[in-house]
Design goal:
The chain is built from 10 helices and 13 strands. With 378 residues, it is an alpha+beta fold. The protein has a single domain, classed as Ribosomal Protein S5, domain 2 (2-Layer Sandwich), CATH 3.30.230. Helix 1 runs parallel beside helix 2 and helix 2 crosses helix 4. It is globular. The termini are far apart.
Length: 378
């Protein structure tokens, strides 16, 4: 039996820095996807550093990895900016969970434990600032997600959709790289309550819900200017954004992540997207993803020679009766067949209405919100 686990890349659209203090963040998960290949072996590990958070997890759970060989595949080839370190931790964690719960492992996954483990290991590794861990949850869920934590616990997990008719987004890779861990070690944000950024993220969420491209653009620009005022935008990014905004078809742009250095998020007119690709090349930017590349969360495929199974598990927040029936059906298929297995964890949720608990998801104290309909215009 061999396995391939995969997770999407991540980009903080809104919420970088704010998330460090427990504020919410909106994360886009896109392809290409990171992969973890697991096969029967002797405990060999390829392309995971022993001192990384994934490496620390493997050391602490050595039995899970003693009889298998592990290979991590980074489709971005180490260029950074899309969450390779969080993806490799997430995927080795998922392997441990699979060994414990087998066919039902995604249903029994404890988000609180996943999130806490990531943060706790970062402290053990000597990090001076604890990462938010929101990127790990975003990559688990896929799509566009809103995640929030407070007082040492995840409190809200929400799902947003890109339903803008005439606007597209692009994620552009720069040639600069700011090491997030080193940057956080030098960061001094004590005394900054980020109240202005919190307001922007909440307004951005509303813009997503109402398919309101104008106010999403206002939020993008406001967040960027707030980071600029704090000195949290790399000079190279400032130069790039200024150059991009001079193009008629580009509505707005901001850097994402540490100092906004690695990735630029661009909002543009959909009909002009093809023309813009050539412009991006001219200014030395690589277009990595658009809204068409929004990707599902964690996936698993397993194969056994001579036997075939095709199974897609799409976990959604819906009526409990339908949810139980779906889970029962999926579980029965797994019990009846032993072979190629595909499981997809894709939680569609949102924080615009009253929360409901998700039964069987192994989580207490987190608000999961059912999918929403756009609000009527005022």
């Amino acid at each position: 039996m061999s396995y391939v686990f995969s997770a999407p890349g991540k980009t903080f659209l809104f919420g970088e820095y704010l998330a460090l203090n427990g504020g919410p963040a909106i994360v886009a998960s896109t392809g290409p996807r990171f992969e973890l290949k697991v096969s029967k072996g002797e405990g060999l590990c390829h392309d995971i550093h022993p001192k990384s958070l994934a490496g620390l997890w493997m050391r602490a759970n050595a039995f899970d990895f003693s009889n298998v060989d592990i290979e991590f595949i980074d489709p971005y080839e180490g260029k950074g900016g899309f969450g390779a370190s969080s993806a490799e931790f997430l995927l080795v964690y998922i392997w441990s969970e699979y060994l414990k719960n087998q066919s039902d492992f995604l249903n029994k996954l404890d988000l609180q434990h996943l999130w806490s483990s990531y943060r706790e290991l970062s402290l053990e590794s000597g990090a001076s600032v604890t990462p938010s861990g929101i990127d790990v949850i975003g990559q688990l869920l896929g799509g566009i997600s809103k995640v929030q934590w407070q007082e040492g616990r995840l409190t809200k997990v929400g799902r947003l959709n890109w339903n803008f008719e005439s606007q597209s987004f692009c994620l552009l890779k720069t040639t600069k790289k700011v090491n997030t861990h080193e940057h956080l070690a030098q960061l001094d944000i004590k005394g900054d309550d980020f109240s202005d950024l919190l307001s922007v993220v909440n307004k951005a969420e509303k813009a997503f819900k109402n398919n309101d491209a104008f106010h999403l653009l206002v939020c993008l620009e406001t967040y960027y200017q707030s980071l600029m005022a704090r000195g949290l935008v790399h000079q190279n990014t400032q130069n790039i954004v200024k150059q991009l905004k001079a193009a008629e078809s580009i509505l707005g742009a901001k850097g994402c992540g540490a100092m906004g250095a690695d990735v630029i998020w661009v909002l543009c007119e959909t009909e002009k997207l093809d023309q813009l690709q050539n412009f991006f090349k001219v200014v030395g930017l690589e277009m990595v993803a658009t809204e068409k590349n929004l990707s599902t969360g964690v996936e698993m495929k397993a194969s056994l020679e001579g036997v075939k199974i095709d199974l897609n598990y799409d976990l959604k927040i819906e009526e409990e009766k339908n949810k139980r029936a779906l889970k029962k059906s999926m579980t029965q298929q797994l019990l009846n067949k032993e072979a190629e297995l595909t499981q997809v964890n894709n939680v569609q949720v949102d924080s615009g209405v009253e929360p409901i608990p998700v039964e069987g998801y192994g989580v207490e104290g987190i608000d999961f919100i059912p999918d929403f309909s756009p609000e009527e215009p005022a």
